[in-house]
Each structure stands twice: as C-alpha cells, then as structure tokens.
C-alpha cells in the first residue's frame, strides 16, 4: 500500500492517483469498523436489558457476564483497527475535513448506552451518544434488529432534550418580560403612593416613594 511506500516515493513514481484511491479505501474501512463497533455496543446495551438485569442465579449471571466480556473484546479489537486506519489516513495526507469527521476514539466513546436497558432511569438526562453514532451508515439496522429500537430510544431522548431547551428559551424570554413588567408596575404603584403622600403632607413617605420610583425605574431600564 502507498502508506508503506511513503508519499514522497509515491510522488516520485507518479502514483498520486493510488494515494487518493487508498484514502477512499481507508474511509470505507473506517466506516465498516465503526459500524461493527456500533453493533457491538448496541448488543451490549440490549444484553444488559434482557439478561444481566434478569439473572436469577450465579450461573446465569456468570454466563451473561462472559457474553459482556466477549463483546468488550470485540469492541476493543475493532477500536484498535480503527485507530490504525486513522493513522494511515493521516499518513496519506488526509485534510482536516476528513480528520474532523473521523475523530480519535477514547474510552468514553466505547461505553454502552444504558438508555435501552432502562429508558426511565434517573440521572441520565444529559447523557448523549458518542460522535460516531451520527455517521450515516446505510442499512445498518438490517444486520441487527435491536438497532432500530436503539435508534428510536435515543431519538426520543434527543427530541425530549431539544423540547426542553426550546421551552427553557421561551420561559427565559417570558421571564425577562415579566420582570420588566414587575418593575414598571412597582414604579407606577409608588408614583401613586407618592402623590397621595404629597396631598396628605407626609414628606417622609413622599421622599421614600421618590426613592422607590427611582430604583424601580432604573431596574426597568436595565431589563430592556
């Protein structure tokens, strides 16, 4: 392959076209490996839901945890292949647009999602899937029936999070208006009290009302 020959040597031999060809092959390899990682992580999440949580005795739990360990081995093997593939893409002179798409994998990226195991579990409202789940791989649900449910659960969680953000933005905008209206109302209220104090000859209350009017007026301007 061109990466083992070296880019300068390939350029001397006029093999620049092969460099681009190998880069495309590496991208395809990276997609395949990431697809296998996604399948293994989805299987692991479903395994926690269907077997780990329902293990009734030591034998069942031991057998289930062996399956989990086997899936961890599969994930680590494919992660190693992906990292090697990414290094080869760097050696082939891949630009930032490619490397930003195929990011480095870390241990947190290889953690199975618990949303499928228990969609209503507490403390996971801010959890999100790793970056490689956003890569569109055609027909990735055909090989594994659980992938459809996996995507559905996380799509609903993402939609719920988006809806909460939209609601929070609306509330913040309304709260700003409510606060401004409150300051305006207080300023008007103290104007009326100050006017009554002047008519009653209560200078102390009139001075205090003037101070309150000034304070609420300034606060209202800050909110604008």
UniProtKB/TrEMBL annotation:
Domain of life assignment: Eukaryota
Record protein name field: Uncharacterized protein
């Amino acid at each position: 392959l061109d990466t083992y020959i070296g880019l300068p040597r390939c350029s001397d031999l006029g093999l620049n076209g092969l460099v681009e060809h190998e880069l495309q092959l590496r991208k395809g390899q990276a997609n395949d490996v990431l697809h296998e990682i996604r399948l293994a992580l989805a299987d692991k999440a479903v395994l926690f839901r269907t077997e780990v949580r329902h293990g009734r005795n030591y034998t069942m739990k031991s057998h289930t945890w062996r399956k989990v360990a086997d899936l961890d081995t599969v994930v680590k093997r494919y992660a190693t292949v992906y990292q090697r593939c990414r290094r080869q893409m760097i050696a082939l002179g891949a630009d930032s647009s490619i490397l930003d798409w195929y990011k480095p994998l870390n241990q947190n990226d290889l953690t199975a999602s618990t949303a499928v195991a228990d969609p209503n579990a507490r403390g996971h409202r801010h959890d999100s899937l790793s970056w490689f789940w956003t890569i569109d791989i055609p027909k990735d649900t055909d090989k594994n029936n659980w992938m459809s449910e996996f995507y559905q659960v996380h799509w609903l969680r993402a939609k719920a999070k988006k809806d909460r953000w939209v609601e929070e933005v609306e509330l913040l905008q309304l709260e700003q208006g409510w606060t401004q209206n409150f300051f305006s109302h207080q300023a008007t209220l103290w104007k009326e009290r100050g006017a009554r104090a002047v008519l009653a000859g209560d200078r102390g209350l009139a001075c205090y009302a003037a101070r309150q009017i000034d304070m609420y007026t300034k606060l209202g301007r800050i909110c604008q």
